[in-house]
Each structure stands twice: as structure tokens, then as C-alpha cells.
Amino acid sequence: MLKGFSVPLTPQGKSALATLPPWHYSSDCLAVEYWADPAAVAALLPPGLTPDETSPGRAFFWFLDWQFTGSNDELTDPARYQYREAFVLIEALFEGRPVNYCPYIFVDNDAAIARGWAQGFPKKFASVYQTRSFSAPSPAAAPLARGSRFGASVAAHGERLATARVQLEEKVDDPTTVFHRPTTMRRHFPQLAADWQDKPPVNELTMSLTDNLTIVDVWAGSAELKLPEVQGEDMHLIAPIRVGRGYRLGMSYSVTDLRILKIYSA
Questions:
Q1: Domains of the chain and CATH, by start
Q2: What's the CA gap between 206 and 122, in Å, rounded?
Q3: pLDDT in tens, 142-177
Q4: How far apart are alpha carbons 90 and 99 in whole angstroms?
Q5: Cα–Cα distances in Å, from 262 out to 66, 135, 185, 203, 266?
Q6: Which helix (H) or strand (E) holds 118?
């Protein structure tokens, strides 16, 4: 019997890119609030999501430095299970409920791509970097303190897709005043057979479920964000018209389940 949560399936099941949940994540994060062209943001929304007229064009660009583990002590194998990620979340409504939607996401690890596709995140391969904090005092330590500066970038195929800078100014006591919307995605798997290429067997609107979500050490400050036009990419169409606050925080959660909101291919 062949085993594996994802391909490749093998008799032992050890080669699968993604293992069975639970999946546990911990990360240092940099996030920049910004506003893009509301029409360009609305054009990215799949059926079932509508623009949030209370925050037209509002989005967050995230950079994350992740450590992952499943049930087999994966955190002791950092070469396979540490990775970095960058994505956009745009604000929308689902049946009147405020949500985020993820139209673009980039990651530097193949197992993370497999787990993301299983959830509906449209992950693409890229290189992602962000300033790290260290405990030993140094001009390079970037402590969580007023005045510290952080940077982040994502690049693919030799092109810089996004660059961010944040300077910390104040601690945020209640993270839910900033981060309180669940994230929705579109799970879409195409069919290559000629007669079925316009009929994907999986085409769903999903919602990410995060168990034991914890957000700590949130700092806010001034921010910069650039999304240049790059050949072969569309993300520049939601480049900033205005940039708001930047945030540095720690985040952890577990994934054991997924909520399907709509099935388009039924």
C-alpha cells in the first residue's frame, strides 16, 4: 500500500512533501499596512467575496521567518523545515463578515509550497529575506525597541518583487486592534486532459483555520513599501498608493483542519 499525505506516494510514506497534520508554526514577522487602487484589489476577489467598502483598497504585505514541526520532531531538521515567506492580504467581505484574501504568496521551501497548495495558498518559489533580532547587544542586533529598523524583500527569477522598511516607534498592547480578520484562499487544481481543461476538479473558496493562534511582542512604527513592475508578474497592479503603519511581531499557531466556504466546481 502506498502512503503519503501528498505526492510522492511510497510504501513507507517518508518521501511525501507534506505530512499529515497537525502542523505547528512559529515565526518572526514584519507586516506593512497600505492602500492600493480599490478597483485593482476588487478585481482579484473570487466569487463569494466582495470589496469591503469601509476599507477600500486596504492591504497588508507580510514577511515571515518560519520554523515548522509536525509530529516527528521536524524542528530538529532545520535544513528541511525552516523557511521564509512573503504574501499579500487584501481586505474583503464574505457574507458580510470582514476577512482577508490572499492573492499572492511566495516561499523558499518546497514542503511549504505543498502544504500551502493543500490549503489554497497560491504559493510560488522565491527568495525572501528579513532583518532578524538577536539577544547579544550590537548595532546589528535589531532589538525590539524604539528606534530599531527592519527591512525585508522578496525576489524571484532575478527580479526584486517587493521591498519593505519599518522603524519601530511604540509597542502595541492589544494585537487584535490590528490583526483580527480570518484569511481566505482559493483552492484551484487544474485538469490537463484536453476536454477538461476548463473544468478544474478542485475549485473552492476556503478559510484558514489556526488553532492556538498567539501573537506577541507587537511593535508599530513608520514604514516604506515598494512593489515595482516586473515582467511575468501582476502584483505591481496593487502597488501602494499610500503606506500606513509597519509592524514587527512574533506569531505561532497550529493547523489541523480547513473550512470550505464555497465549491465552484460542483
A1: 23-263 (2.40.400.10)
A2: 12
A3: 999 999 999 999 999 999 999 999 999 999 999 999
A4: 8
A5: 29, 46, 11, 9, 9
A6: helix 110-119
